[in-house]
Design a protein that fits this description.
Blueprint lengths: L5 H8 L4 H39 L4 H10 L3 H29 L1 H7 L1
Helix pairs in contact: 1-2, 2-3, 2-4, 3-4, 4-5
Length: 111
Amino acid sequence: ENRDADFVRTARAKGLRERVIARRHLLRASLGPVVALLALQMGFLLGGAVLTEMLFVRPGLGQLTLTAVQERDYPVVQAVITLSAAVYVLAGLAADVLTAWLDPRQRAERA
């Protein structure tokens, strides 16, 4: 999609090599959706921890949560959920900042 964009056409018109165009222009413009997808995967990673910890009998945050729910230890459940939500929100924020830094078009739209 980005190979036919105006900024690539301009870079080719300037005489830049394809390797330089790919590395400096195409890669930075194409990484935005990948970074956003990786941030969304943090939720699945946190959710999959419970299953993995129970399957391999490893102590961790998932097993702590499950034990706290079974024993009705509400402060621990609240702490784990708050921590998980904070990690998820911070991952999204980091993805937004990284996307804005990587793609110059994002910076131009916000200015």
